[in-house]
Amino acid sequence: AQTVTQSQPEMSVQEAETVTLSCTYDTSESDYYLFWYKQPPSRQMILVIRQEAYKQQNATENRFSVNFQKAAKSFSLKISDSQLGDAAMYFCAYRTSWNFNKFYFGSGTKLNVKP
Amino acid sequence: DGGITQSPKYLFRKEGQNVTLSCEQNLNHDAMYWYRQDPGQGLRLIYYSQIVNDFQKGDIAEGYSVSREKKESFPLTVTSAQKNPTAFYLCASSPQAGGLPDTQYFGPGTRLTVL
Asked: What is the DSSP letter of A85?
């Protein structure tokens, strides 16, 4: 079964600086999808970024980018120029290619942003 | 405004009672999902539905039931058989079933507490 591991329960970053959140996963598949979701205090999950495993190019969305290392099964999220509004729980998620309804979520990383 | 609504935001239940959580979407999405979130853990899939009048068990379906009589609605009933129902419940939807949905979009969640 696929597992997603986020080894950092909590992290802190100074406003305007850069932070990287780690995520590793375990799978025997060659094609799959990876996601980072943000859950602010309102508790609503918001998609931050997605990556398709067959694409070697790392995904980027404005200040958010990923470092996708397929061989190492690593999918880290880099947040540049951190803002106070980035403070939230961040979840890494894996979706299989054969059952698109199955998402596997990590346990989350709480990001604190210091002014 | 298109989106997913969940009601109520907070719900209290006495032991031995069934309770139903509402989830409605006006995004015209085919697939809908229910997740459970416990402190320090990621989301776990309870049930999902790809089309009207069809639904499938997720990883932790015991003690829960669902229906999908309309495309827009996917209510979740937490039955008295669920031994530890206190949790945060998230509903989600995705655009396509039978294909490759882009991702899942989440509602604001319902916090259920058993007294």
From this structure: G
What is the rounded distance in angstroms from the CA atom of residue A79 to the CA atom of residue A86?
A: 9
Give the dihedral sign, CA B93/B12/B69/A102: positive
Q: How far apart are CA A75 and CA A65, in angstroms?
A: 10
Taking the C-alpha atoms of residue B114 and residue B85, their distance in angstroms, rounded to an integer, is 7
Using alpha carbons, select from B79, B75, B62 the residue that is nearest to residue B32: B75
* pLDDT band at residue B81 using 50, 70 and 90 as cut-offs: confident
| pLDDT for residue B4 | 92
The alpha-carbon gap from A33 to the nearest alpha carbon of chain B, in Å, equals 9
Do B59 and B36 meet the contact criterion of CB atoms below 8 Å apart? no
Which tokens belong to A5? Answer: 């591991």
How close A31 gets to chain B, by Cα (Å)? 12
Taking an 8 Å cut-off on Cβ atoms, the answer to whether B92 and A9 are in contact is no
Distances in whole angstroms, Cα of residue B42 to Cα of each of A29, A75, B46: 21, 16, 13
**In this structure, what is the dihedral angle of CA atoms A57, B96, B4, A108, given to the nearest 10 degrees?**
-40
Task: Tell which residue, B22, B98, B10, has the closest CA to residue B66.
Answer: B22
Structure confidence by residue, pLDDT tens digits, A53-88: 888 889 888 999 999 999 999 999 999 999 999 999
Phi, psi of B80 (to 5 degrees): -70, -15
Q: Do A47 and B31 touch (CB under 8 A)?
A: no
